[in-house]
Amino acid sequence: MIDTIGETVVGHLVDRGMTALGPGLVFWTGGGLAWLSAHGGPGELKRLAALVQELPVLAVIVLVAMVFIGVYASTLLVRLLTRPVLRLLQGYGPKRLRAARTAKRTAQVEKWEEERQELARPVHDGRASAPQRARYAALDARLNRDPGREELRMPTRVGNVLRTAETRPRDKYGLDVVALWPHLWLSLPEEDRLALAEARAALDRSVATVIWGLGFVAFGYWNPWAIPIGLLLALATHRWWLPGRAVVYADLLEAGVDLHRHLLYRRLRWPVPTDPDDERRAGARLTTYLVRGLAGTDPTFTTEAAS
Predict the structure, then answer these.
(1) Between the N and C ends of the chain, which has fewer C-beta atoms within 10 Å?
(2) pTM: predicted TM-score of the whole model, two decimal places
């Protein structure tokens, strides 16, 4: 998938740093409470507070710095894990398991398509009941998030949402978004890049929340309640928050290509296509040109590049 969409500086550095450390602080605070519950509870906390009060100021500063270093290190580790975990949540994994899950997904998609076709006539004729119209709309939305071809299908909902956004522009415009993403990214207006970067950051935060939740399970060694809390957080995020963020990111990615793909042609001084059929041919040729290069005198570049 498209893993890197560029760096965008938003807000003040301190605000961004504290926002990034927030989940880590919550995580370790919860871990500390789990540890205290197994080692005396409030009484142990009071004893530790008394020990800290007796320490020299310099030692307290060093202790606080060590705490923040630990929080920062764990936050950095989660950030490094975000991309590979997202790939796992998309369905990239052992080929045999992936093939079995994809086949199951394909069977489900085929059932949805059959049901949608059965509902299509009464819905279009105006004879459908309100529940039938609602069901038709739900099926249409689900199938719209599917790549449509079995060889492109992923075994998970999130994987299919992102795969559809990456592959649909090739079907419509002949452009391979994955291969040309750096060029397309640099062609987008600043406000569009900012919106897309924020959507990607929200997607990454949802993946990070899954990681934090699974990590919290380890504190079950001291308090069994940490296990259901961590699992519930991870599962709820994976079930509801992550797919929603994936949809927003995918919609913005596809919309960016829909609205601004012609800027790529102009900036490369490449003739802008004149109709849909011409665009699919031109997009495929432009993809080849940027990925591997072309020889010859066709096409003829335009005289000026767009700024």
Answers:
(1) C
(2) 0.84
